[in-house]
């Protein structure tokens, strides 16, 4: 039985509720410093996973083709629209009313980063599939520690809408883990290594984005994870 998705989603729920309740009482210095620490941790995990790559050209091709598919489908845009719909629903339920257009745009810019980070980040997608295939929940457990504090920091300004993200994230991660479990008998060590390497590159992209060093559309790169193992199998067969 997988445990990572449940622990990860519980961390977001607790962090989101706690951060929204505390609000401005969280020191500004923490709200400024901790996101950079989260980004540094993501970079570290990304480096560790990238060095596992069996065939570097496979990871590069998967990333390039995944970016093309993601950009054409505008994955990050649609994730942002769904996030804004959730935000408006929470506001109506709580009776706070709708925000002004300028506030809505500012919220959307920040909320899309949170939704991508929690539901569609390389760490979450890769960690779920890795646990489903190998039973190793280490990536999701590490992500849970980060998400607990990340959710609290973002919820201090974005409100309880951050805690709501725990539900779709749990559904997505469970679905990915179960699907990966069925794929496990069809893979070999090289395919799994290339999948890990591609996931590591996505974690690097996530870390750079959190740190504000490179504004990569991480959600648009997610198709790379789907392409990694088929490309690895083709590479091993023909090269």
Automatic annotation (TrEMBL):
The keyword Methyltransferase does not apply. Keywords: Membrane, Transmembrane, Transmembrane helix. The chain crosses the membrane at residues 33-51, 58-79, 111-128, 140-164, 170-189, 201-229. InterPro entries: DUF554. Pfam families: DUF554. This is DUF554 domain-containing protein. It comes from Corticimicrobacter populi.
């Amino acid at each position: 039985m997988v445990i990572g998705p449940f622990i990860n989603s519980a961390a977001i729920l607790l962090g989101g509720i706690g951060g929204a309740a505390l609000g401005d009482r969280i020191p500004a210095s923490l709200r400024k410093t901790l996101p950079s620490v989260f980004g540094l941790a993501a970079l570290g995990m990304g480096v560790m996973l990238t060095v596992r790559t069996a065939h570097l050209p496979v990871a590069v091709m998967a990333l390039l083709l995944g970016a093309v598919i993601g950009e054409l489908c505008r994955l990050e845009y649609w994730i942002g629209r769904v996030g804004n719909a959730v935000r408006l629903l929470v506001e109506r339920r709580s009776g706070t009313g709708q925000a002004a257009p300028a506030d809505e745009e500012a919220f959307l810019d920040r909320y899309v980063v949170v939704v991508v980070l929690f539901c569609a980040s390389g760490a979450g997608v890769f960690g779920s599939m890795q646990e489903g295939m190998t039973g190793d929940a280490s990536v999701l457990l590490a992500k849970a520690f980060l998400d607990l504090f990340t959710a609290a920091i973002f919820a201090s300004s974005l409100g309880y809408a951050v805690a709501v993200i725990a539900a779709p994230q749990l559904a997505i991660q469970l679905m990915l883990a179960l699907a990966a479990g069925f794929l496990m008998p069809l893979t070999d060590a090289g395919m799994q290594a290339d999948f890990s390497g591609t996931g590591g590159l996505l974690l690097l992209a996530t870390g750079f984005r959190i740190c504000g060093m490179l504004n990569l559309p991480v959600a648009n790169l997610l198709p790379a994870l789907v392409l990694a193992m088929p490309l690895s199998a083709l590479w091993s067969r023909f090269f």
